[in-house]
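Bumping my old thread because nobody answered last time. Still need a sequence for this structure:
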C-alpha cells in the first residue's frame, strides 16, 4: 500500500513540476503516473550501469557527475513516454534536482520526521 501511495504522490509532484518548470511538459495525470513508473524502472535497471561505468569521472567531479546521470535518465524517460516531453539537457537537470528535493521534503513530512 505504501508503494502505491508513494507512486501517486510522486505522480502529483511530477505533474505539478511539469506545469511550473520551463522545458518540461506532461500531457495529463495519467502520463505522469506512467512517467513515475518508467523512471522507477530506469533508476532500477539503467542507472546502476551508468554509475558503474562513470566511477572515474564521478570521483574526479566529487560526485557531481551523478547529477548528469540523473538528467540523462530523465531525458531517456522523455524519449520513452509519449506524453512526457523534455526539451533538452538543462531542463532535465533542473527537473531532476527539483524533483529530488521535493520528494525528500514530502517523504519527510509523510514519515513524520
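Sorry it took so long. Here it is:
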Amino acid at each position: 500500500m505504501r508503494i502505491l501511495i508513494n507512486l501517486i504522490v510522486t505522480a502529483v509532484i511530477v505533474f505539478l513540476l511539469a506545469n511550473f518548470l520551463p522545458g518540461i511538459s506532461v500531457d495529463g495525470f495519467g502520463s505522469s503516473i506512467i512517467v513515475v513508473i518508467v523512471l522507477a524502472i530506469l533508476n532500477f535497471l539503467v542507472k546502476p550501469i551508468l554509475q558503474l561505468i562513470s566511477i572515474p569521472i564521478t570521483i574526479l567531479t566529487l560526485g557531481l557527475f551523478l547529477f548528469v546521470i540523473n538528467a540523462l535518465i530523465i531525458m531517456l524517460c522523455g524519449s520513452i513516454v509519449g506524453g512526457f516531453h523534455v526539451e533538452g539537457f538543462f531542463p532535465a537537470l533542473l527537473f531532476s534536482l527539483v524533483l529530488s528535493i521535493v520528494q525528500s521534503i514530502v517523504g519527510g513530512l509523510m514519515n513524520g520526521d
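Helices lie at 2-20, 29-45, 47-53, 55-60, 65-80, 89-111. Let me know if any region looks off to you.
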